[in-house]
Predict the structure.
Amino acid sequence: MKKLSNFALLFLLLPVLALAEGDDITWNNTLKTQFFAGKTIEESDAVIELEAPYRAEDPAIVPVKVISKMPQTQDKYIKKIWVFVDKNPFPFVGEFEFFPESGKADLAMRVRVNTYSNIRAIAETNDGKLTMTKKFVKASGGCSAPVGADLDEAMKRLGKVKFRLDEGLKTGQPTQAQLMISHPNLTGMQMDQMTRYVRKSHFIDQLKVTFNDKPVLNAKIDIAISADPNFRFYFVPDKPGELKAEFSDISCESPTSRKVCDKGASYSHQYAVAP
Amino acid sequence: MRLLVVWIGLLINAACWALPALPVTEAAPGVFVHVSEHHWPDRENHGEIANIGFIVGDDCVAIIDSGGSPQQGLALRKAVKNATSKPICYVINTHVHPDHIYGNRAFKEKGVRFVGHYKLARAMATRAPYYLSRADEVLDIRVGPDNIIPPDLQVKQTMNLNLGNRELVLTAHPSAHTDNDLSVYDKNTDTLWLADLLFLEHIPVIDGSIRGWLKELQRLEKNHYKLVIPGHGRLVKDWPVSLQPQKAYLEQLAGEIKVMIKHGKTLEYAIERVGLSAKNNWQLFEQFHRKNVTIAFAELEWED
């Protein structure tokens, strides 16, 4: 009898456990085949690790960090990192390309998290091996929505860019840079029948960072990136020169499809570095 | 079969009639307020957590915020019927948050005009799909697009509404608690219905602009009002004294965050450290404080 009731209890708890731990349904059923068809992916924290808060305090701005476990050398380096928020209407966050010149394939960013979800990062090393790591994040409820708080303020600043080197310059060593881009990164509005608002999404889709014209970071990104996109990454300042960010935005008809889109504007920003 | 239908019909009708009126107090002559306790919106309270109410003129009634659920909207409607036989002519939504707009549908009929900040409709368009998708799970209420009613009258700066020998002055504020805050001033009783521009006991929630909010408070602080009605918290008869805790909290946040930004600290670092000494001053601190820090940081890092 005891066994039976234990069994019943386990049964009752199962859905709760699944919810608490985050599930892999979207990954297994959709994302894996969509992005990595026929590939083998090892699940481990050996190559990269993911840092994310257990509770998303503001679902519009959830700080997430990918930490690499190996230095970037000419012989062995992390080539690419993909990031997904499984349960977002559009789970793809971005595809980030790194180079030996990046020094270190760490990447911090801010993302939108719609609901309780796994966030996952997949790294590809230059030998073609894929490694995946994930973290479960609980989105907050209440009056919090994963959209920007002050749209007009963000629109007013649109295109403003800042580089910051807050940890100082280390000549010939991996040095952290912060790139701040002011852009509302609109997810799109669909409430046409009641509020007469139909607005397309409007977000940054391509980003390229170079140091003295050598690539540091290339990214293909999407609406899961928070308003005012913010990235921290590494580069190696071996001599005086110029950090440069080039990016472009795009506008799409549907928040969840990229079939019908219009190319937007291109932006460029330089920053002098003198080690 | 027909009997069964009649019987069910009666039951539903009875259920409607049985719905109790929302408890309200007459805070000033003709100014009725339901003062709520402070709760995190959940499946128990269905998001019915804000101060809502109505003002009665010689000709008609203005609802000020309709409630956190369709049921609370109906209960508020019943409270109006108990208080006066005058018809309802306006539903004023002070901002987009669900605890202030989900009762709207209870008042949708001919002759009733919905009033809001000129940015309210846009905020509804951006947020409502998300709010609606979560309402079932988070609040245990059934709401759909019909429950989101955008304003017929949009307030760009100020607007006067006459309820019959009773003039209300509506002010659209710059971005503060949200980017669509509207306050209501009742000339007859010198009452300012500030809604969520003012929090007492319940931690202030930033969903617009911390700089804008502080600026607006500095302006409002200079005025005198007999009565001020917050969106969350007790009625205020000592303005601007009761405003000070909220002002101090926002100033502390802005001050500490600015120092961290200057020293190159990250958002993650700030979330773990800023403003924790204010913890014992506020209810629901754990639920909202770190969100406040996040949103304020994201705003202040663009200052200069």
In short: Residues 1-16 of chain B have pLDDT under 50 and may be disordered. The first helix of chain B runs from residue 2 to 18.
